[in-house]
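[Automated response] Your request has been received and processed.

Submitted sequence:
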Amino acid sequence: MEEIIIAPVIIFLVVVAPIWLVLHYRSKKQVNQGLSQEEYIQLSELSEVADSMAERIKTLEAILDVETPRWRNKL
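Generated structure:
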């Protein structure tokens, strides 16, 4: 009966466990590296677009406030 349990345990320790450990620490290393240069550039561009859109929204709201003072109550 013990032979039935020992064989899978040995296979697990010799084959599965090392592969599991290597993949685990490789994924941890990738997470710790942070953003790549390309991702950082894309994030900066998206931030600039968001800032531009925020300014446009403020401008549009100012125009609406002048032309239609009660437009906010209609929402």
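Summary generated for your ticket: Residues 2 and 19 are 26 Å apart (CA to CA). Residues 2-33 form the longest helix (32 residues).
If you did not submit this request, please reply to this message.
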